[in-house]
């Protein structure tokens, strides 16, 4: 599966469009990470637990989107966008969407 | 009286740790930015080379969450009363964005990319507490940088 955030797959011709595909996840970390983040928030610096949380969530969203695209018979997703929203403290939603296409 | 002394001590501890962490972070950011100068990042969608010269394309992206320290938040709360530039937040967001970009570059290098096109940065505020009185207690900035890494035929 080729994934890009530009409007084409360079050097390849798009033969079929399948419309939008998307994936979303809502994730929270366990309480230990939240407490650790609270402590880190006093001293400053990177919140490694939350960084991992969001990266895992993004990976999973992309996987869901990819699954949806291959189910439709696509072999590439173009013009991919990411959106993040925080739902409550310590939980966030990641949404990823794009256009599924088939290229030669 | 005792309470005031304790909170001043807390602020001083947070100030020194926060400043130290920020200085170190900026130093490492500058070092790594120099190392990645060889891979150009473009914000345009157009291909800078002819499309038949392109070997492969791939989406790369990485994010980071950076928290401000207790002193920064306290100062931001004070400045918020009188208005003006909140420099403590400015450096926080700057660090998060640059760090995210660097981590994206690391991934780009792993896939042997020659350049990155249509580069975008998403920023969001996680950990936001709704209660107004604690508005500045816990600010953490998440930056996510992504773009299409392209490899040119040699």
Characterization of the model:
The complex is a heterodimer of chains A (104) and B (154). Chain A has 104 residues and is an alpha+beta fold. Chain A has one domain: Hypothetical protein apc22750. Chain B (Translation Initiation Factor IF3), CATH 3.30.110. Helices cover 37% and strands 43% of the residues of chain A. Chain A has a four-stranded mixed beta sheet. Chain B has a three-stranded antiparallel beta sheet with strand order 1-3-2, covered by helices on one side. In chain B, helix 1 crosses helix 2 and helix 1 runs parallel beside helix 3. The longest helix of chain B has 34 residues. Chain B is elongated, with a radius of gyration of 20 Å. About 4% of the residues of chain B have low confidence. Strand 3 of chain A pairs antiparallel with strand 1 of chain B.
Task: Tell me briefly what this model is.
The complex is a heterodimer of chains A (104) and B (154). With 104 residues, chain A is an alpha+beta fold.
Topology:
The complex is a heterodimer of chains A (104) and B (154).
Chain A lengths: L1 E2 L10 E15 L2 H13 L1 E2 L1 H25 L3 E13 L2 E13 L1
Parallel strand pairs in A: 1-4
Antiparallel strand pairs in A: 2-5, 4-5
Chain B lengths: L1 H34 L18 E14 L2 H13 L4 H24 L4 E12 L13 E13 L2
Helix pairs in contact in B: 1-2, 1-3
Shape of chain A: elongated
Question: How is the biggest beta sheet of chain B arranged?
Answer: 3 strands, antiparallel
Q: Indicate the proportion of strand residues of chain A.
A: 35-45%
Helix count of chain B? Answer: 3
Output the CATH topology of chain A: Translation Initiation Factor IF3
H/I helix tally of chain A: 2
Return the domain count of chain A.
1
The CATH class of chain A is Alpha Beta
Topology pattern of chain A, helix = H, strand = E: EEHEHEE
What structural category characterises the helix and strand content of chain A? alpha+beta
Q: What portion of residues of chain B belong to β-strands?
A: 25-35%
Mean pLDDT value of chain A: 88
Most extensive interface: A-B, 33 and 46 residues
Look at the helices and sheets of chain B and give the structural class. alpha+beta
User: What is the second-level CATH architecture of chain B?
Assistant: 2-Layer Sandwich
Low-confidence spans of chain A: pLDDT under 50, at least 5 residues? none
Tell me, rounded to a whole number, the average pLDDT of chain B. 87
- CATH superfamily of chain A, called what? Hypothetical protein apc22750. Chain B
């Amino acid at each position: 599966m080729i994934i890009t955030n530009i409007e084409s797959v360079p050097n390849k011709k798009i033969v079929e469009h399948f419309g939008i595909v998307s994936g979303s996840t809502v994730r929270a970390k366990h309480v230990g990470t939240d407490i650790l983040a609270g402590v880190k928030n006093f001293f400053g610096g990177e919140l490694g637990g939350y960084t991992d949380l969001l990266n895992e969530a993004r990976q999973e969203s992309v996987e869901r989107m990819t699954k949806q695209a291959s189910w439709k018979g696509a072999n590439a997703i173009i013009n991919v966008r990411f959106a993040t929203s925080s739902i409550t403290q310590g939980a966030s939603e990641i949404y990823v969407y794009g256009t599924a296409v088939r290229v030669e | 009286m005792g309470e005031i002394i304790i909170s001043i001590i807390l602020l001083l501890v947070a100030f020194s740790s926060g400043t130290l962490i920020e200085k170190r972070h900026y130093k490492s950011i500058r070092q790594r930015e120099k190392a990645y100068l060889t891979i150009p990042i473009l914000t345009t969608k157009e291909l800078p080379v002819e499309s038949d010269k392109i070997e492969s394309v791939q989406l790369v992206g990485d994010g980071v969450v950076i928290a401000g320290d207790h002193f920064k938040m306290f100062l931001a709360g004070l400045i918020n009363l009188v208005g003006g530039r909140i420099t403590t937040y400015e450096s926080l967001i700057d660090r998060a964005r640059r760090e995210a970009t660097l981590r994206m570059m690391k991934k780009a290098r792993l896939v042997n990319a020659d350049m990155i096109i249509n580069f975008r940065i998403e920023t969001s505020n996680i950990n936001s507490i709704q209660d107004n009185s604690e508005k500045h207690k816990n600010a953490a900035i998440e930056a996510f940088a992504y773009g299409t890494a392209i490899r040119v035929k040699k």
